Known about the structure:
Chain B: Belongs to the RNase PH family. Chain B: GO terms for molecular function: mRNA 3'-UTR AU-rich region binding. Chain B: It is found in: Cytoplasm; Nucleus, Nucleolus. Chain B: This is Exosome component 7. The complex is a heterodimer of chains A (227) and B (290). Chain A has helices at residues 59-63, 65-68, 162-180, 187-197, 208-226, and strands at residues 17-25, 29-33, 40-47, 74-82, 88-92, 98-99, 104-107, 120-122, 127-131, 136-141. In chain A, helix 4 (187-197) crosses helix 5 (208-226). By secondary structure, chain A is of the alpha+beta class. In chain A, 26% of the residues lie in helices and 25% in strands. Chain B is of the alpha+beta class and 290 residues long. Chain B has one domain (8-279): 2-Layer Sandwich (Ribosomal Protein S5, domain 2), CATH 3.30.230. In chain B, 28% of the residues lie in helices and 31% in strands. Chain B has helices at residues 8-19, 95-111, 147-161, 215-220, 248-279; strands spanning 35-39, 47-53, 56-67, 78-84, 124-126, 130-142, 163-165, 167-171, 177-181, 188-190, 198-205, 208-211, 223-229, 235-241. In chain B, 43% of the residues are buried. Classes of the chains: A alpha+beta (227), B alpha+beta (290).
Amino acid sequence: VCDRAxxxxxxxxxxxxxxxRITEVQQKRWKVETNSRLDxxxxxxSINLPGGELRRKSAEDELAMRxxxxxxxxxxxxxxxxxxxxxxxxxxxxLKYGKLAQGVLVQVSPSLVKRQKTHFHDLPCGxxxxxxxxxxxxxxPTSEQKEDEAGGYTANLxxxxxxxxxxxxxxxxxxxxLVTHKMMLFDTSIxxxxxxxxxxxxxxxxxxxxxxxxxxxARQRLLDLEG
Amino acid sequence: xxxxxxxxxxxxxxxxxxxxxxxxxxxGCEDYRCAEVETDVVSNTSGxxxxxxxETDILVGIKAEMGTPKLEKPDEGYLEFFVDCSSNSxxxxxxxxxxxxxxxxxxxxxxxxxxxxxxxxxxxxxPKEHCWVLYVDVLLLExxxxxxxxxxxxxxxxxxxxxxxxxxxxxxxxxxxxxxLSDDPYDCIRLNIDEVPCIVTxxxxxxRHVVDATLQEEACSLASLLVSVTxxxxxxxxxxxxxxxxxxxxxxxxxETGQRVGKLLHIALQKILDEEESLGTSRPKVGFLG
Lengths: 227, 290
């Protein structure tokens, strides 16, 4: 007999992708909030520096930690290891991880995020989404040029165009709708829900009647896909 | 107030969105979130209401008790407000929530201090001796941004739901007065809430202002204006909160928006209350299980 709670804290497993928020800057590491029982840890030796250079971190790097990541910043990272007390140690030693720029964060229960091969999706509707295993979902505009330069440290501060904003807001509302009906979140379910919501206005998606209608349609399409 | 921490890029995204009249959840600057209002949820009160505005959850209970009128107003009853924020989050337990609670209570006193909001003369039983005192208890169950608006809606709904028993004053030969409570539980007086105002909070984000800010939007706003608006669009009180400053021009614009939005809010609320009323006692109550 197995018991899986519907709403619980995130329990890290090695290799998981998480989205977290920096809560503290300590001596040689950052404390990251990932909706787990204990704050996760991001060691200074586990990050990649701007420009993608790999070198041993010196004392100057230690003093300049706040220039890289400050309190409140959002990062995408992978779980490297787990300490004996259950706290998770993260790393961003790949160019696809790092500080996140403009976008929208949605916090859901970790049990609703389906485990897949990849958690970074560029959806065909025009935005990208990171489905963190810890329940933090990050929706952001798809960048035209590939992130080969900074590894995420130079934040693009230009205003996001209105068309991208509409897609992002619609996706955000669709994810909230799916979560209200306790449906699993993965790229196909989010996409079907998005397409089902197109006839409605973005702000109407959160009305109870409309939510039920589009979630029902998405669920039907998913069943048809399986069967 | 409970607040969230946001990264600079997230705040920038929100501010730019507000400039273009498309907020994170797709609303325009003057749109409210979906609100649920239910009255008569607490059985041992004279009137109660529960309001859910997005994530914000407010419970208001009103108890009518007999007391002595105030010296300066001997032929009127009065209202007393108590606000409890302790169930919201650990940081608001004990002393922390008290400051927020007294702040909200003082704002409510101000809003209701205007002469005609509630007909206080109808609360008088015996001038100088007996009157009805309405103890309004506000419970902040969850803070999801924009608590003042939700609280004012809940107070108005609870006042609408309040039933005060009818009393008769009997005087004997010696002059001692006796108060007789009517036996029929349905024989009661209701309050007229036409003039009760609702608070509209306008938060300044960037160069524009938004109505019904979420916690994330409140984190991006440095200054807000609270206006209490009656159903006819009259502003009864105004309060500025926040560390930032407001331009007098923006204050005028915000007041106008407040009046516009306030009138629509009253119409929507009255519709829900009338619908509930028409269903009568056979209304299915959801309460806390829904």
